[in-house]
Amino acid sequence: MMPVVALVGRPNVGKSTLFNRLTRTRDALVANFPGLTRDRQYGQAKIGELEFIVVDTGGIDGTEEGIELQMAAQSLAAIDEADVVLFMVDGRAGLSSADEGIAAHLRRCHKRTLLVVNKTDGIDADSAVSEFYQLGLGEVYPIAATHGRGVLSLIEIALAPQLEELALEQQQQSAIAEAQLEVDAEQAEEEFDFSDLDEHQIQDLLSVMDEANEEEAQQFADLPIKLAIVGRPNVGKSTLTNRILGEERVVVYDQPGTTRDSVYIPMQRDEQDYILIDTAGVRRRGRVNETVEKFSVIKTLKAIEDANVVLLVVDAREGISEQDLSLLGFVLNAGRSIVLAVNKWDGLADDAREDIKRELDRRLGFIDFARLHFISALHGSGVGNLFESVKEAYASATKRVNTSMLTRIMMMAQDEHQPPLVSGRRIKLKYAHAGGYNPPRIIVHGNQVKSLPESYKRYLINYFRRSLQMMGTPIRVEFNEGE
Ligand code: GDP
Ligand code: GDP
């Protein structure tokens, strides 16, 4: 699970500068969700192998009285969701009463907090930081967000526990991998060098791989499907969850949790087990004003990470928004299978429906492999059919495909449409085999495959998708030099 770093501080201390520096290489994820108290920004960042989420909480203007109130209103939720808080102050402006107010609050929060003195470029860092020790938050970390100075080591310290955990995990994994490698070092070497082998030897090796793949695929067969219902506030997630579970179960699962936790609800439908990951928090009947408070971007992102299949709900009456596309991007990035539900389809005039369908075509054309359902969570129409697509998406994501099938499909694609020449030689695809599931990975071996243009890679992915009838899941194709 990705850790969450929250940037907290009064306006103008450099939060968005640091946010941009941390997330620059990746797209900022979910900006400015409407309905939240103030514009908050969420982004993905990475240090080493560790991905994390950064939240810019927006400014806290603590100069007026009632700092508590304002903290509560806009940043409390973000602090609550965070694993670590970076409390930023301005090394040039010096300590202010607003800083003291925020510090007092943070001391009471019992969250892991690092005090960061920004803008220490071109000034004497030692004297700039010294006065901030009196905030009583322990060590003080000087940085210059605009230049990036001190930022890397700050994050290393901030996420030290998570980095350690990851390193330990990787150590264990590589120890296991090493042991395996030793056992069949010779075979492993041969396995990826097809050039000296004849047809029969290659077939033998590939069938060994197929057996291993089969074992891996088998493990998915009997597991419940983890299904996350996600979407912007007010699109109808709670209504849909209630509809799926049946009214009588609502109260049972209406348990308070922290804002970042989804509720996991086991259920069964048509002999298939599911675990519903409820990000909305099923609402107790009669309570209507909970929408803003119960919605949490972090919770949504974590639910997506943890799911097998994501049911993304959009609102027919609102159209496709940037936030919908951000969420979609995150789902695909995470390699999760997806089913789209266009909710509130009831009571719309025919021409309105046509307009909406045209818009969906235009904006969601890039994800034409996802099944699209028009539903009314309120009246229940179309809801039952969702599960067929969910099952189909999961089956696609975990579908067993063997080497000869993949190689044959690849050859057909190549025959229909030759790869281009690279410095006078034609790129040649030779073999393809499965590299993993959920999402499906296909490894293609060949000559000069690293030079394949993006357009040809897309063509191949689509060819695999059509031939294998994989709906609802992203497919990853990797290319290995065969010689
Ligand atoms: P926010 O309101 O906390 O998000 O602050 P911003 O990131 O918008 O920064 C406020 C101002 O401080 C901008 O003019 C930045 O260019 C400037 N600033 C941010 N970081 C630094 C820094 O490390 N050094 C200097 N000299 N200026 C900085
Ligand atoms: P959530 O924030 O995504 O959980 O959204 P809710 O389930 O709380 O729904 C937000 C509002 O949309 C509520 O007033 C619902 O009654 C309404 N709503 C939900 N689904 C439908 C639907 O299918 N049709 C119509 N007309 N309204 C709906």
Would you kindly provide a written description of the structure presented here, covering whatever features stand out?
By secondary structure, the protein is an alpha/beta fold. It is 41% helix and 21% strand. It is built from 17 helices and 18 strands. A 7-stranded mixed beta sheet has the order 2-3-4-1-5-6-7, with helices on both faces. Strands 9-10-8-11-12-13 form a 6-stranded mixed beta sheet, with helices on both faces. A 3-stranded mixed beta sheet has the order 16-17-18. The longest helix has 24 residues, at 160-183. The model is unreliable at 25-38, 187-192, 248-258 and 282-293 (pLDDT under 50). It binds guanosine-5'-diphosphate (2 copies). Residues 9, 11-17, 59, 118-119, 121, 144-146 line the site of one guanosine-5'-diphosphate. One of its GO terms (molecular function) is GTP binding. Residues 3-166, 225-398 form the EngA-type G domain. Pfam families: KH_dom-like, MMR_HSR1.
List keywords for this structure.
alpha/beta, 7-stranded mixed sheet, 6-stranded mixed sheet, 41% helix, binds guanosine-5'-diphosphate
Strand order in the sheet with the most strands: 2-3-4-1-5-6-7
Number of helices, where a helix is a run of at least 4 consecutive DSSP H or I residues: 17
Identify the quaternary structure here. single chain
Estimate percent helicity. 40-55%
CA-based gyration radius: 26 Å
Secondary-structure-based class equals: alpha/beta
Coarse shape:
globular
- What compounds sit in this structure? guanosine-5'-diphosphate
- What is the mean pLDDT? 81
Main sheet characteristics = 7 strands, mixed
Give a count of the beta strands, DSSP E runs of length 2 or more. Answer: 18
Low-confidence stretches: 25-38, 187-192, 248-258, 282-293
* Ends distance: 38 Å
Strand content: 15-25%
GO biological process, one term: ribosome biogenesis
Function: GTPase that plays an essential role in the late steps of ribosome biogenesis.
Binding site for GTP 2: 231-238, 278-282, 343-346
Binding site for GTP 1: 9-16, 56-60, 118-121
